[in-house]
Amino acid sequence: MEMSEKVVDRPEQNRFELAVDGGTAIAAYLREGNTFVFTHTEVPEALEGQGIGSALIKGALAHVRAVGDRFVPQCPFVAAYADRHPEVRDLLAG
């Protein structure tokens, strides 16, 4: 499996992207002030179960941290990621 070097923020499309093996995993979000509200995560079906979703969210949350913002995990996948990774819980809004 080949992953691009990093997760890319596409603010014009309200999503983070991670290109992998010809497919693109996405984490859709809405912006509410200084908060990213993650609404949906999608990994191409052929690439599921390979840690791509986790790599995507890890990169997205690194961006959230780098810009000094917070996040709301409306998407169940992002909520589960936050539950499994205490190091990102300080970024939770509210």
Q: How far apart are the termini? A: 37 Å
Q: Which parts are unreliable, with pLDDT below 50 for 5 consecutive residues or more?
A: none
What composes the largest sheet? 5 strands, mixed
CATH class: Alpha Beta
The global form is globular
Number of helices: 2
* Helix fraction bin: 25-40%
Q: Give the overall pLDDT as a whole number.
A: 93
What fold name stands as the CATH topology?
A: Aminopeptidase
Task: Give the strand tally.
Answer: 5
Order of helices and strands: EEEEHEH
Overall description:
The protein is of the alpha+beta class and about 90 residues long. It has a single domain, classed as Gcn5-related N-acetyltransferase (GNAT) (Aminopeptidase). About 25% of the residues lie in helices and about 35% in strands. It contains 2 helices and 5 strands. It has helices spanning about 50-65, 75-85; strands spanning about 10, 15-20, 25-30, 35-40, 70-75. A 5-stranded mixed sheet has the order 1-2-3-4-5. Strand 1 (about 10) and strand 2 (about 15-20) form a beta hairpin.
Short characterization:
With 94 residues, the protein is α+β, with helices and mostly antiparallel strands.
Describe the secondary-structure layout.
Layout: E1 8-10, E2 15-20, E3 23-32, E4 35-42, H1 52-66, E5 70-73, H2 76-84
For the structure shown, list the relevant keywords.
94 residues; five-stranded mixed beta sheet; 33% strand
